[in-house]
Amino acid sequence: MSTEKLTGQQIADLDLGGWANLVGGLQTRIRTGDFATGLQVLNAIGAAAEEMNHHPDLDLRYSRIDVRLSSHDAGGITDRDVALARRIEEIATAAGATLDRTGLSLVELGLDSPDGRAIAPFWAAVLDVEHLSGEGWDDVADKNGVHPLIWFQSSGSEETRQRWHPDVWVEADQVQSRILAAVAAGGRLVSDERAPRFWVLADAEGNRVCLCTWQGRD
User: Fold this and answer.
1) Model confidence over 17-48: pLDDT tens digits?
2) Which GO molecular-function terms appear in the entry (predicted)?
3) For the packed helices 79-94 and 35-52, what is the interaxial angle rounded to 10 degrees?
4) Fewest CB within a 10 Å sphere: which of 13, 52, 66, 92?
5) What is the CA radius of gyration of the chain?
6) What is the Cα–Cα distance from 68 to 85, expressed in whole angstroms?
């Protein structure tokens, strides 16, 4: 089984149904209906993961299980994730549960700053997470996956300006419904110049958010 990272288009061509491709990982929500079924499905997934020696992130709630698959050694999604995703779907179906990617999002926080590198250690300290940096980039990342990633976007220092903006990652087929709902709720589409990588929207007060997808990033 190949450990090479798959492209977004390769993943889309596999037609994984209930799975969403969000920031280098496959995600789904298993609708179990009750806690007992959820525990049954969770245990079966755990056994399959041990057998395949590939382990997902699992979040069990009363009527659902959120699942995320990623090959961290490859920095994205590989055939191992696809194989386990298909096995998880078989387990869920056998238990009478369903996979649902509708409404799934992964949120990152962008902080616009003239000097992100200077302030990144502060945010790492107050959140008790790691400051990661490289050539031209800085991230504040929680290795436990609890807090959203914070990244820093170079900006001017003029006032008044928005400093924080969320990046909301969604599956490509979810974008237009999100935009329509946001506009109906009083917002506006600011720019689709970089679509399908991302769309910029704003609320009635001008606070901005980006809706992001895997498309155009391979």
Assistant:
1) 999 999 999 999 999 999 999 999 999 999 99
2) 4-alpha-hydroxytetrahydrobiopterin dehydratase activity
3) 150
4) 13
5) 19
6) 9
Please state, in angstroms and rounded to a whole number, the distance separating the CA atoms of residues 100 and 193. Answer: 30
**C-alpha angle with apex 171: 162 to 66, nearest 5 degrees?**
100
Q: Cα–Cα distance between 216 and 218 in angstroms, integer?
A: 6
DSSP code of residue 76: B
Which residues is 90 bridged to in the sheet? none
What domains appear along the chain, each with residue ranges and CATH number? 8-100 (3.30.1360.20), 106-212 (3.10.180.10)
How far, in Å, CA of 137 to CA of 196, rounded? 23
Which residues in the chain show pLDDT less than 70?
1
Of 191, 207, 199, give the one whose Cα is nearest residue 175: 199
Half-sphere exposure of 65 (CA within 13 A, CB side): 29
Distances in whole angstroms, Cα of residue 11 to Cα of each of 8, 16, 105, 139: 5, 8, 18, 26
The 3-state DSSP class for residue 32 equals coil
Question: CA neighbours within 13 Å on the CB side: how many for 207?
Answer: 11
Both tokens of 128, joined, read 């008790």
Q: How many residues does the chain have?
A: 218
